[in-house]
Amino acid sequence: MVTTSGGPAVRYADGVAAADGALDRPIGKVAPRLGPKFEALGVHVAGDLLRYYPRRYADPSRLTDIAGLEIDEKASIVAEVRSSSGVLRARTSGKLRVEAQVTDGHAVLHLAFFAQREGMAKAFAAQMRPGRRGLFTGKVGWFNGRAQLANPAVVWFDADDEGAAIEHAERPIPVYPASATLDSAKIATTVQVVLDGLRDGDVPDPVPAEVRQERGYGELLPALRRLHRPETEQDWRVAQQRQRYEEAFVLQAELARRRVRAAAQAAVARPPVPGGLLDAFDARLPFALTAGQREVGEQIAQEIARPVPMQRLLQGEVGSGKTVVALRAMLQVVDAGGQAALLAPTEVLAAQHARSLRALLGDLAEGGLLGGAEHGTRVTLLTGSVTGAARRTALLDAASGAAGIVVGTHALLEKNVQFAELGLVVVDEQHRFGVEQRDALRAKAAAQPHLLAMTATPIPRTVAMTVFGDLETSVLRELPAGRSPITSFVVPADLPAWMARTWVRVREEVDKGGRVYVVCPRITGDDADGADLVEPGAATLGDQGAAARRPPRAVLEVADELRGLPELAGLGIGVLHGKLPPEDKDRALADFAAGRTPVLVSTTVVEVGVDVPEATAMVILDADLFGVSQLHQLRGRVGRGTAPGVCLLVSGARPGTPGDDRLRTVAETLDGFALAQFDLEQRREGDVLGASQSGAASSLRLLRVARDGDLIEQARTDARAVVAADPELVGHPALRAAIDQLLAGERDEFLDRA
Question: What is the DSSP string of 302-367?
């Protein structure tokens, strides 16, 4: 059999009690002395442990490349004992230790084991026989000028009889995601105890038998056994594929249930009204709609004309004209006697939307006011900073119906905000709102309102299927006629001549009548929280170069520096960030648009919604600290008029690092969907899907949307068929239970983030 050790004092099954096979048995009863350590990993009951899948599998027949190990990483290596010191005693402290060397045949790694008692040290020294092979797990450290594993856990691959040894030498060894206090060997032991207590039928299978048969997948318990105790590599690979499908199926079943529930609710039909506001608006449009805008607009018009609530996600390239599409839908609803609410994530974006809608509508947005159109409506803005008489007027306009369109932030969700007849909810930057926030606004309607969710961040198809599967999806790829191209360049921050040329280029753009954004990741030098909306997890350890030697650039410091540059002498330089009072934000944008401060130093508050046609250039400092989609969104703020745009990505990332690769990719293409796919493939899955919100208990363990698109498509087809036949899943209690587990705690937010 396999023998193990976690140092001289640790036995393989330390603290593990016999299991009784109950999946809901607390982990503290399965492994009494290890319970708290498992709970820290998100494992609370025996059933959780069965879903705590191995991170990888060690092959006893293949030695690990020791030279490829990295200092401070948690490593599990297969190696052979080269030599052992026997028991050593420190002269001063008297502490006992055993030193050994293991090898892969080329490089050597040093091991050190520390013991409290001499008997334990001798016992472990006896195990470290030259030629013996095992799996050594621990943190790679650096001691006395060499790499070392201190007190590693060990799984030996030899056995008492030669036949068992040969059999085990061919069996993959599961390696589990471990913690500082709970190593892979202890996890493996506890998993085996749980598995040994199970019989056929003890583990409910969420995937219906007819679906498994159609797709060629086996039952759940045998798959779990092959995952946790595989005999061959083929065993765990087949089992992993089966579990990927199960994860996709359960997720798609919940999304299908949401679709069915939404379709079963009644909504007020809002058909087009000939001669109404929409027709008047279309007649005044100074430009022709793109083919995509016309097609998507027709889809939306047909859906909001039905007595079933529309559930649609509109995504599109930066500047593709989503606002016009949304406005036309809102006007159709207003024509039919309803109101529309536009929910935006920030005050800057909400105010920009209100200005844009009023500018597009002209006197059509001044209904009931002097000089307003006879059959016009009103566009009302309601944010947290709207106070006093302006707030009372906005609340009255919304409650009375005088405002056909109400634009706002989270302030729209407050209890005292009422609508006369809310017919359409438009959620901009959908990924920044959770389920509860979206539904809180929809609950203000007497009947279920139609929903149009929008995002300016292109979403790969597989992510859309996985996260927004309860919404129909429309895509705008075509840019309106007259939009100018944007050229992007990477500027090395450590080359003074390049930086000097950057500021000369800024001056040239201003002298031609343009405006220039300068974007920084932070507000002040001591801003511990960073920028307003810098993407979490965008920078990786491998990106650290010049950026690691100095703090990221900050708005207020950079603004002061630019005011002192001879290249920019005489230019007005403004600042904009999320901590400014609302009136100062509005003033900063107004001064920028008017040219009074043609250079605006800002955080990422300008990422979405800010529309200044005269803006022709953007300089992004520490660009390697931003994510791909965020850089693409920022870049989209320039070139919105008739003059071409330029984006200068200033970076301290070393060539060949992930940060530099991101910037080169952004500079090479303007295709937001291609960049989104690249982003998905480069970043951790949890960052993209929001699963990291749930910590160690995140819902997707094996499924990867960048890789498993075809499988997700199959699961969606199968899940929709099952839910269509049994919407409440009365005949599928195991599937219903799996969905409840998927949504446990706050994990329902997972379904609403991308």
Answer: HHHTSSS--EEEEEE-TTS-HHHHHHHHHHHHHHTT-EEEEE-SSHHHHHHHHHHHHHHHGGGGBT
Other CB atoms within 10 Å distance of the CB of residue 347: 22
Residue 283, token pair as written in the block: 């007649």
Reported pTM: 0.69
413, two tokens = 């969700």
The CA–CA distances, whole Å, from 453 to 334, 472, 474, 752 equal 18, 10, 10, 11
Q: Is 213 exposed, middle or buried (0-12, 13-18, 19+ CB in 10 A)?
A: exposed
Cα–Cα distance for residue pair 405/343, rounded to 1 Å: 11
Strand ranges across the sheet with 515-519: 486-492, 645-651, 615-620, 515-519, 599-602, 573-576
Neighbours of 205 (CB within 10 A): 20
DSSP 8-class letter at 59: -
3-state secondary structure of 426: strand
What does the alpha-carbon distance between residue 265 and residue 54 come to, in Å, rounded to a whole number?
43
User: Can you tell me the distance from the alpha carbon of 198 to that of 203, in angstroms, rounded to the nearest whole number?
Assistant: 8
Check: CB of residue 554 under 8 Å from CB of residue 525.
Answer: yes
Segments of 531-681 assigned E as strands: 573-576, 599-602, 615-620, 645-651
Give the tens place of pLDDT for each residue, 136-189.
888 888 888 888 988 887 877 765 544 444 455 567 888 898 887 888 888 988
Count helices and strands (H / E) in the chain.
Answer: 26, 22
Q: From CA 105, how far away is CA 375, in angstroms rounded?
A: 85
The CA distance from 12 to 359, in Å, is 72
Minimum mean pLDDT range among 9-18, 174-183, 304-313, 436-445: 9-18
Nearest Cα neighbor of 704 from 675, 678, 680 is 680
Q: Pull the structure tokens for residue 600.
A: 């605006």
Beta bridge partners of 115: 96
Is residue 50 helix, strand or coil? helix
SS3 82: strand
DSSP states along 679-747: HHHHS-HHHHHSGGGGGGG-S-SS--TTT-HHHHHHHHHHHHHHHHH-TT-TT-HHHHHHHHHHTTTTG
What stretches of 150-232 show up as alpha helix (H) in DSSP? 162-168, 184-196, 209-215, 220-228
Write the CA distances from 693 to 207, 224, 696, 707, 752, integer angstroms: 26, 26, 9, 22, 12
Element (H, E) at 408: strand 403-408
Which residues are within 8 A (CB) of 170 and not within 5 positions of it... i.e. 6 or more apart?
60, 61, 232
> Distance between CA 350 and CA 453 in Å, rounded?
15
CA distance 570 to 567: 9
Containing 155, the helix (H) or strand (E) segment is strand 153-156
Q: Round to whole Å and give the CA distance between 94 and 98.
A: 13
**Residue whose tokens read 């079933």:** 308
Per DSSP, the residues of 706-720 read TT-HHHHHHHHHHHH
Q: How far apart are CA 385 and CA 410, in angstroms?
A: 11
Q: What pLDDT was estimated at residue 400?
A: 94
Mean pLDDT of all residues in 509-534: 77
Helix, strand, or coil (residue 12): coil
Average pLDDT over residues 310-325: 85
284 CB-side CA count, 13 A = 15
How many C-alpha atoms does 159 have within 13 Å on its Cβ side?
12
- Exposure string over 245-268, b if 16+ CB within 10 A, otherwise e: bbbbbbbbbbbbbbbeebeeeebb
Six-digit token string for 165: 């040894």
Residue 731's Cβ-count burial label (10 Å; 0-12, 13-18, 19+) is exposed
Beta strand 56-58 with 133-143 is: unpaired
The single-letter code of the amino acid at 745 is G
Residue 518 bridge partners (DSSP): 601, 619
Tokens at residue 489, please?
A: 């360049």
